Amino acid sequence: DLEKDLQDMTPEEKVKANRDRNREHARNTRLRKKAYLEKLKSTVDELCRERDTLVSERAGAASLMVEIHNTRTEVLMSFFALRSTYEKQRDLWSSILDESCFSCVMPVTPYRSFPASEVQVSKCQRTILGIDGMISDTASLHVLLNSLIDRSRYPAASIQFRYTLVTEDAVVAGNQMMARWVMSTVNATQFGARMEVAKQGMLCCKFNSAHKIIGLELMFDVMAFMLQLKQAAGSETFSVVPNTVQTCQRSFSSPMVMTLAERPYTIVQVNKLWEDMTGFRAEDVVGKASCRILQGQETDRSAVEVLMSSVRFKRPASASLLNYTRAGKRFRNYLNVYPLSTDSKITHYVSLTAHVDMIDNNGAVGSGTLAGATQSTSMPAHALKPAAEGRPMAASAQVAAPLASQETFQHVTASGQTRLHGVSYIAPQPITSGATMATNILPHSPSISNATPGDFGSNQQSKPC
User: Fold this and answer.
1) Would you list the DSSP string of 389-453?
2) How far, in Å, CA of 31 to CA of 201, rounded?
């Protein structure tokens, strides 16, 4: 029909028909192109929106990661700040540590006090459980560093130290962070030490969703730090700090007295140096009295209460107390007290005198002698007399064998020397999940917290050493 129509058309009509057909084809082509362009534009717009959303999500995730990293870094810095200042308020510690499952793993440190129950001999490490365990470990660290002070010249001084957390090369994976850290004293030489001491190592910290620490592993070279402590103290030898009753059954080069860890803090053992320092014989005090027999009118009750605060919570402590000999002579002794374990339970305390000053009737220091001692009495405690064996314990105070014997700790120390000598950093071990670990929380009893020095027992056997 179309061909017939074309045959019937005049030339002018044929030209017009071709022109109309071409115009229709061109119009349809333009419509198709327009539809294609609109679809292409819609696709591009959709892709741009998806790109912008993805970029925004990535930026948000990166910002969140940075915020989480900064928050957790601040938590770690807060942890080290509390540790360096020996903060005793549990609420501050609980703001950064998860009370339900916190644990801290570190190498065995024979140069300072720690509970024998924390030791894992096979791994040459110890595990600190709970906030109270960490506060006790912090107390132990401060007692150690304060032992570097020359008490004959600086009787009231205190060592300050600081931590540095190196975050530039920190590794973050999920809820864990690994970073380098450095601890160093800042005023040890100012108070008589031969040198400042420092240790560096690695840490692996595990956080919960609230950014509280649930697991912490500290790694450092134990033997290198022990060598620094010896050099700073100017000592040729280094004694292992006792942490069980059994490890106290040896000679001490300073006055030693062991008491029960509970009221009335009865004396169960003394050595000859303690007898010479105080004038009391072992048979007069063992099983019969507490160290309150050394206190008198001028004894600082507030200093005794500060010491008692640590004793009540079974923490290591140090104190400078003005005491009296049996003859009534005054002397000031700087002492370190350490909790002792029996079968994983703290049952006793041992007090080791680090320095003694004799005070005469006019208040002058160093003008007399202590009990039977012949030396000037402004002197280190070990200068009183040669080391002597400890006096026998009271029969009523005999205890079962402790969890770890002295030989065990010698083995731990030897293993530490073999494993840690010359090693700056130790590869971290996987942190055990703390979901089932129990905390060691001591109740805050108002009757205990508000007690006065005279409240511990109804007689003169109520004082700690």
Assistant:
1) PBPPPPGGG--PPPSS-HHHHHHHHHHHHHHHTT-S--PPPPPPP-TTPPP------HHHHT--G
2) 73
How far, in Å, CA of 41 to CA of 61, rounded? 30
Q: How many CB atoms lie within 10 A of CB 74?
A: 14
Q: Which two tokens stand for residue 402?
A: 């402790």
CATH 3.10.450.50 residue window(s) in the chain: 83-237+405-420
CATH of the domain spanning 83-237+405-420, picked from 3.30.110.40, 3.40.50.2000, 3.10.450.50, 3.40.50.2300: 3.10.450.50
Phi, psi of 460 (to 5 degrees): -80, 5
The bridge status of strand 345-359 relative to strand 330-342 is antiparallel
**Of 227, 176, 224, 173, which Cα lies nearest the Cα of 203?**
176
Is the domain defined by 246-402 classed in CATH 3.40.50.150? no
pTM for the whole thing? Answer: 0.71
Instruction: Divide the 465 residues of the chain into consecutive groups of 10 and give the mean pLDDT of each group.
Output: 68 84 90 92 93 88 86 94 94 94 94 91 91 96 94 91 90 92 96 95 95 96 93 84 89 92 93 93 92 92 93 94 92 93 92 86 55 36 42 40 27 29 27 29 32 35 36
